[in-house]
From TrEMBL:
Residues 81-275 form the BD-FAE-like domain. PANTHER family: ALPHA/BETA-HYDROLASE, ALPHA_BETA HYDROLASE FOLD-1 DOMAIN-CONTAINING PROTEIN. It comes from the Bacteria. This is Alpha/beta hydrolase family protein. InterPro entries: AB_hydrolase_fold (IPR029058), BD-FAE-like_dom (IPR049492), DNA-binding_regulatory (IPR052920). Keywords: Hydrolase. The lineage of its organism: Bacteria, Pseudomonadati, Planctomycetota, Planctomycetia, Pirellulales. Gene3D superfamilies: alpha/beta hydrolase. The keyword Hydrolase applies. GO terms for molecular function: hydrolase activity.
Length: 325
């Protein structure tokens, strides 16, 4: 009996060790994957847009890469500007083919082209550790990436005259992790530089997004608990800091939340949790639509018009054409 108990104890210890090791490997993959290598690029220059390439300092040692599109003078909305923020493993110039080639698109198709053609200046950034931006610690699912967004706002405000934008009329547009990052940045915006936020397919809480992502990748969610532990341990940032739900009470500007009912990576539950919070200072506009995969509502023409109308209303004081459902 004693030998059996001893053997059982050894087996349990080994199983727990493997459980932790696999969780640690999952966390390392999320935090330290190479997001600089881009197999296919689609740049604004390829489509004849007027492009200004920007280098945005985050601190003394780290910079972000960005580009700015300027509208033609005949449609310009007098300097209204939108900052576009990509998601995990994305980039300002990355050509996505997710979940299939039918959805192949870059920042331009996801809203950049429609917005600049409607009169907005559009700034697209590569977040830290992505694209052409510098490595700067691990990926933190929006916690420290919000510093990148706030640094971009400071840069635009300090160079507004040179860039031809109005520093008092800047909005954010983010997708997936980028949407969560924009919401977190909005909560941290103590100077009220952000006038409006469009958040597409964001997660409500990073902790619950981890098992959702694992299910999507067919990774057993039994490893979610150690993965969350190691994410916090290795990144030095608690997952609560990457959770928009815990911060939305500090967002002062109007917010538009959109999500697909067909999202298998981050289910529509995340939108419902965010939308139902009692802590919003302003009730967000909500729009959900079936049929599409994660962050692929841009395939709908109405998506672009709703986005344009939302930013026209809050950045250019132009009446919106329809109410969001």
């Amino acid at each position: 009996m004693t030998e059996f108990v001893f053997s059982l104890a050894i087996a349990v210890v080994i199983a727990l060790a493997l459980w932790q090791i696999i969780g640690c490997l999952i966390a390392q993959r999320l935090l330290y994957s190479n997001h600089h290598s881009i197999a296919q690029r689609r740049t604004p220059e390829q489509f004849g847009h007027r492009v200004t390439r920007l280098t945005i300092p985050v601190d003394r040692h780290h910079n972000l890469a960005a580009w700015m599109l300027s509208p033609s003078p005949d449609v310009s909305l007098d300097g209204a500007c939108i900052v576009m923020v990509h998601g995990f493993s994305g980039g300002k110039d990355k050509l996505w083919s997710f979940p299939s080639d039918d959805y192949q698109a870059s920042t331009l198709e996801q809203g950049g082209a429609a917005l600049v053609n409607s009169g907005f200046h559009v700034v697209a950034i590569d977040l830290r550790n992505h694209g052409d931006s510098d490595d700067n610690g691990p990926v933190t699912l929006g916690a420290r990436e919000s510093d990148d967004v706030l640094s971009t706002l400071d840069y635009l405000r300090n160079h507004a005259g040179h860039l031809g934008i109005d520093a008092n009329r800047i909005g954010l547009r983010g997708e997936s992790m980028g949407g969560a990052t924009c919401l977190i940045a909005g909560a941290r915006d103590q100077e009220n530089q952000i006038r409006a936020i469009w958040s597409d397919s964001a997660f409500a809480e990073a902790a619950s997004a981890i098992p959702d992502f694992m299910r999507h990748k067919n990774i057993p969610t039994i490893f979610a608990l150690p993965a969350r532990f190691w994410l916090t341990k290795l990144a030095g940032v608690h997952l609560n800091e990457a959770s928009p739900l815990r911060r939305i009470g500090m967002i002062h500007c109007p917010v538009f939340l959109t999500h697909s009912n067909g999202d298998a990576m981050l289910p529509i539950r995340h939108l419902e949790i965010l939308a139902s919070s009692e802590h919003w200072q302003q009730t967000p506009q909500i729009w959900s639509l079936a049929q599409h995969a994660h962050n692929r509502l841009w395939r709908e023409p109405e998506y672009h018009q709703r986005q344009i109308d939302f930013f026209r209303l809050h950045l250019a004081n132009q009446t919106i054409r329809r109410e969001a459902a």
